[in-house]
């Protein structure tokens, strides 16, 4: 494994660990000593090569697909990630509650989970859009058009949805 590849792999490992709010010692504690902090740290720095078997076990421990840990890969093998879906929370506040109530509650829940209360915008994932589409009993593309018409989503969101449905 090249040194550069090992460092990129390590950066992905570190990103997943920190997204989950774990310190290196937290990994050791949560795994009941199966994953030693010093070993995981050496993987993350790229100082130590990780075997395919150990990488698969670590991915399982973190609850992510192995592909998410590999450098140079994006979900679904896409060459370019789709544009982000960003809700304009200021505009959402002006959409009548009978229309936007479910979206407002969903956005508030995401904000609460993330501790993100900037109040201006909120990034959502493709999975969030699919969930909202079920709530609104519409396809993701129809819901996207509705949210664009409300001024809550930027028109670039169309590319994200068409990329997802492709």
From TrEMBL:
Name recorded for this polypeptide: Transcriptional regulator BldD
UniProt domain HTH cro/C1-type: residue ranges: 13-69
SUPFAM superfamilies noted in UniProt: lambda repressor-like DNA-binding domains
Pfam families cross-referenced by the UniProt entry: BldD-like_C (PF21179), HTH_31 (PF13560)
Native species: Streptomyces ureilyticus
Organism taxonomic ancestry: Bacteria, Bacillati, Actinomycetota, Actinomycetes, Kitasatosporales
Superkingdom of this protein's organism: Bacteria
PROSITE patterns recorded: HTH_CROC1
